[in-house]
Amino acid sequence: MKTRLGKLFAVAMMGAMFACSAPQQVAQVQQPDEVDFDVPCSGPEYFTNGEYFRASADGLSPNMSIAKKIAYADARAGLASEIQAKVNVVTDNYSSQHDFNGNQEAKQRFQDLSRSIVSQTLNGTRVICEKMKKTKDGKFHCYVAMELAGEEIIKNMADRISQDDKLKIDFEYEKFKKDFKEEMAKIGS
């Protein structure tokens, strides 16, 4: 019995020795297919909210000024698209609720005018973030975020409509402003 116990002890000791002296195998962690990274001039603080329309974009080029022009053009295009969509909703709602004294031509003029204002309104945009980086291969990468206050759009609408003799008769500025602010509030919530 002692010999059996001695053999068993010897086997256990050899196993322990091999376990201690065997090279440790490190579990290999699979690398993910995607890697997290931060994009400059983007994130929640650069999203459209109840007060401002906002858009972010970037441009890449071997020429720094071209990278900047690409970023600015893309940000303005994004801003225009977002504003146009919101203005369309507000003007369609406003014109459907407002009878323009039965004048279909005035209703159509109002809708057309409001849509054309968007491109002019973009002149009031403000750059809220701009970062320029240089890539390893020597290209310039420009990141930009722009904003435009909803109040600017309302003001431009009122100014343009006040210049149209047919529309200013039927236009209720306060009602339009209220409708616009209600739509902007939907963005923020």
Automatic annotation (TrEMBL):
It comes from the Bacteria. Keywords: Signal. Residues 1-22 form the signal peptide. This is LPP20 lipoprotein. It comes from Marinifilum breve. The lineage of its organism: Bacteria, Pseudomonadati, Bacteroidota, Bacteroidia, Marinilabiliales.
